[in-house]
Design goal:
With 206 residues, the chain is mainly alpha-helical. The protein has eight helices and two strands.
């Protein structure tokens, strides 16, 4: 893990069963909810419907062609899982480095939709806002990780170089200390010899 994504963790922690239940009560969920849940499925590497063009209406009277959603077939099943919110938090904490360029290519068409923002999602449901924040935070994490990776790799190289230098320094210090100990031993031996000589000379004079 390169670094934490607190925004994604916070968004996942804000999702409650009550909020999810609010979405599930919709007889016909808003298009934005379907789009957000498609992105959740993409990030979690869950199954999706085959890509087929479909008309969607994010705002009343404004229809456009987009990819058909996977809400009825896969997203609803994922949302009702008892550990759904927990899985999102776990992904944000431990599995976010699984996001790759292929995942980002799938997400990009959704992320550039003007309405795919938390403020707009909040108008639909609290859970939709948190899920939208989570999706965007995960995408932002990946982009930032690509920027940070070369710097972290360079830091790791520097750390290894420092460790090697430190080992050499410790060996040099050890060798220096051994040499100093030998000098001290010779010095002590010399001084002892000088004292013995002086004692012998004093006895000879007596």
């Amino acid at each position: 893990m390169l670094f934490r994504s607190r925004a994604a963790e916070k968004a996942a922690s804000a999702i409650s069963k009550k909020d999810i239940g609010q979405i599930q009560k919709y007889p016909k969920p808003p298009v934005l909810v379907k789009l957000i849940m498609d992105c959740v499925l993409i990030l979690l590497l869950k199954p999706l419907e085959k890509v087929q063009p479909s008309a969607m209406e994010l705002r009343k009277g404004e229809s456009q062609i987009f990819v058909g959603d996977s809400y009825e077939s896969y997203a609803k099943k994922t949302m009702v899982e008892s550990d759904f919110a927990k899985n999102l938090l776990q992904f944000a904490q431990e599995e976010k480095d699984k996001i790759n360029e292929e995942t980002m290519e799938f997400l990009e068409p959704y992320l550039i939709i003007p309405d795919f923002v938390p403020d707009r999602a909040k108008q639909v449901a609290n859970a939709a806002e948190s899920l939208c924040k989570w999706v965007r935070a995960m995408a932002a994490y990946h982009v930032r990780s690509l920027e940070m990776l070369p710097k972290l790799e360079q830091l790791e190289i520097k750390k290894n170089q420092f460790a090697v230098a430190q080992t050499k320094l410790n060996k040099a210090k050890a060798a220096s200390q051994a040499a100093q100990d030998e000098v001290d031993k010779l010095q002590a031996s010399f001084q002892a010899t000088v004292r013995e000589k002086q004692e012998l000379e004093m006895k000879a004079r007596a």
